[in-house]
Write a structure and sequence with these properties.
Elements: H1 14-23, E1 26-27, E2 30-31, H2 49-60, E3 63-64, E4 70-71, H3 77-99, E5 104-109, H4 119-124, H5 131-140, H6 149-159, E6 162-170, H7 174-183, E7 194-197, H8 218-231, E8 234-241, H9 244-247, E9 255-257
Parallel strand pairs: 5-6, 5-8, 6-7, 8-9
Antiparallel strand pairs: 1-2, 3-4
């Protein structure tokens, strides 16, 4: 993922808050801050982190396998909510392609917690993200698909859509990212359909926020990449993400926000 995380007042754990705030730490290479600008005046205004983690696990239907790995349950409220979003997206995509089969139609998927679920990684690291632990996980394990998203992507491709992936993962994780997507049966899981953050050799289409020094926000990077796809003739019918920064900035006819109470990315 290689992303700077900003704490959400109702979406992180005691470990992240206590360690990060006490040490004035940087999380994932970025400044530690609250998603909300409100400063509590009493402890009663703050959600107890132990309770919050329990609520997150209950929402995902936490199950533990024989190896001690944590997984979300396909019967969880999380899965049910995701399936409802997918059903609306499928209906919309079917209508759009039926009305207009001309041109090059596409959908765009973010990867982490949009295409692939990081729930097990979050539990394994007690919700404390670091580039090193995340890179190690991605290099050695496969994230499971977010429930039904691989099926939706394959259905869309069969209907005539091309699938693109735009992720905040670094360029160095390209091969592992393609491996992870392919392991879950995602279509178009190859170099030509995958865009990763390349801060060392940024593409010229991102403009001045990428060079001479990388200052692109997530919204600038992702919307700039979608604009690049549009410049190549693609009509992005739907854009899927678990963060609003995945979706903001335009260059998509419709957006779909997937649920993610585990972290917030500006």
């Amino acid at each position: 993922m290689a992303r700077a995380r900003t704490l959400k007042t109702h979406s992180r754990t005691l470990a992240t808050l206590a360690v990060g705030v006490a040490a004035g730490a940087l999380v994932g290479g970025g400044s530690l801050a609250l998603a909300s600008s409100k400063v509590p005046t009493s402890d009663k205004q703050i959600t107890n982190m132990t309770d919050e983690v329990s609520e997150i696990k209950a929402y995902y239907g936490d199950t533990v396998d024989a190896n001690g790995e944590h997984w979300a349950s396909p019967s969880s409220n999380y899965a049910i909510q995701v399936q409802g979003i997918e059903a609306k997206a499928e209906k919309y995509l079917a209508q759009k392609i039926q009305r207009d089969r001309s041109g090059k139609r596409a959908i765009v998927l973010d990867i982490d917690d949009t295409a692939l679920s990081t729930y097990n990684y979050e539990l394994e690291t007690t919700f404390v993200y670091s580039p090193a632990s995340n890179a190690q996980y991605i290099a050695t394990k496969n994230f499971p698909a977010v429930f039904g998203m691989n099926n939706l992507a394959n259905w869309a491709q069969a209907k005539g859509y091309t699938v693109f992936y735009i992720t905040g993962r670094p360029e160095s994780q390209r091969a592992d990212t393609i491996r992870q997507l392919a392991s879950q049966g995602f279509p178009d899981a190859d170099d030509s359909h995958l865009f990763l953050k390349d801060t060392a050799n940024p593409p010229s289409y991102l403009g001045t926020c990428a060079a001479p020094a990388w200052t692109c926000t997530t919204t600038q990077y992702k919307s700039g990449t979608r604009a690049h796809l549009e410049s190549q003739g693609w009509v992005i019918t739907a854009n899927f993400g678990d963060q609003y920064s995945d979706l903001n900035g335009g260059y998509s006819e419709q957006t779909y926000k997937l649920p993610n109470p585990m972290y917030y990315l500006p």
